[in-house]
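User: Can you help me understand a structure? I only have the sequence.
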Amino acid sequence: MITIVGAGPAGSYLAYLLAKQGKEVTILEEHKTIGAPVQCTGIVTHSIENFFRLKNNVIAKRLDKVIVVSKNNRITANVDEIVMWRDKFDRYVAEMAEDEGADILLSHKFIGFDGSNAIKVKDAKNNKIKNIKTGIVVGADGPYSAVAKAAGMNSNSRHYIGMQAKVNLEMDTTAFETHFGGDFPDFFGWVVPESEGIARLGIGCFENAQGHFYKFLKSRTGKKDVICWESGLIPLYNSKKAIQKGNVYLIGDAAAQVKATTGGGIIPSLKAAQTLCGCIINNKDYNEEFRRQSGRELRLHLRIRNMLNKFSDRDYDKLLSLMSQEKVRKILKKYDRDTPIPLVTNLLIKEPRFLYFLKVLFS
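Assistant: Let's start by predicting it. Here is the structure, written out as tokens:
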């Protein structure tokens, strides 16, 4: 018996893979509805279709441009991005797991371990505490992971505060925006169209998230009101974080499997699900296998983030000037942010002046 705590895309995709291999899998979801509350922008690259093809009702928009904005510069580049309805996407992946034979128990909250082969769960529907016997427990329960805390695997975790809201805004519905510079310390701001007249606007930072958010909101929309909030924590990747301890595993945000450059965790977690499935089936060390298969890419994202966090407004202006060249645009179109190693390698080959920014990293 394998118990997965959390019916987000990481947990549900892992359940789908394990069930396909004939394993008995149960997913515990503390909420009464899968996909709620929404705490994500829901934008992914076309690389997601390397895992499965999305149904049309999951897709809110397809975007072919990104507008990158610094204090004194602005460029537009061609991309291939998908904006999803996150609640529908989560339910879609959960249905894939169910179709393969996985069980999903809604309104079931993980409380803690009861020895090495059992867990305690609160059934909110019946207001009862259950004892569930299980051979393996997977924490796919987000950055506040109760599984990680109960297993003593919650150390050395840092998180950005991601403040996002739906807002009324007329904008190009074929493009999304990213904003960088002194008004966006340690991370960046984003504006992603959801439909005509409605966008998802957000910012990530370590401190004073509310102040930075409202300053960005006012400057971009001229207003201070929002339609609804979709905020949450964004884990910062830590290569030293333990993601397996005996028969307990972590995946997705619970394991900080997130790109430090963008805060995106959907595709890294789907890749991690493939890795973890193989480790469970073949009795391999998940700590080692994940670092071998995904660690180099996520460490590169982290190094780039550390460099960007030292940028001045002038550095961002210079970066955008280099990115505006046609030879650079072609590379940005060919390699997306989910393939950082070939992306960075080809950028340096085509435009060696990007090496200028390495001095910022070591300054």
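Now, to help you interpret it: The longest strand covers residues 59-69. The chain has ten helices and 18 strands. Let me know which part you'd like to focus on.
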